[in-house]
Amino acid sequence: MQRKWERARQLRNAATDAERHLWRHLRGEQLAGLKFRRQYPLAGYIVDFACIPARLVLELDGGQHLDAVGYDAERTRAIEASGYRVLRFWNDDVLLRTDAVLEEVWRYLESREE
User: Fold this and answer.
1) How far, in whole angstroms, is CA 40 from its chain's centroid?
2) Where are the bilayer-spanning segments (predicted)?
3) How confident is the chain (114 residues) per 10-residue block, as mean pLDDT?
4) pLDDT at position 16
5) DSSP calls for 2-44
6) Residue boundaries of the structural domains of the chain
7) In b/e form, how buried is each residue of 75-95, taking b as 16+ CB within 10 angstroms?
């Protein structure tokens, strides 16, 4: 497990533009006051962003994910089997349509409270 935490730290230090951009919006208390963690070990994987209280994972996908559809589906199944909901967004959407991405996350957070 220690290796996962070390790898997570490396990934945080080498964040993509989209990850840094979204993190600026998530790290404050801008989404229902819930805290997000980035590059967080979960279910044997390191997820891009996790909100533990809301049981929510946000995954950002770049072009390389077009070749990893099967792996991503397996990863999503494992994370959801651990009781989390996974929302996936393309890097371009995070960078160019940030408000729409945040709105979708907000809608999920609101729906779980009902």
Assistant:
1) 9
2) none
3) 67 79 82 85 93 95 70 93 96 95 92 70
4) 87
5) HHHHHHHHHHHHT--HHHHHHHHHHSSS-STT---EEEEEETT
6) 2-113
7) bbeebeeeebbbbebbbebbb
Q: Which two tokens stand for residue 31?
A: 């989404």
In this structure, the number of other CB atoms found within 10 A of the CB of residue 59 comes to 18
Query: Rounded distance, CA 50 to CA 33, Å?
Result: 14
The partner residues of 89 in beta bridges, in order of sequence, read 60
- CATH class of residue range 2-113: alpha beta
Residue pair 94/21 in contact (Cβ under 8 Å)? The answer is yes
pTM of the model: 0.84
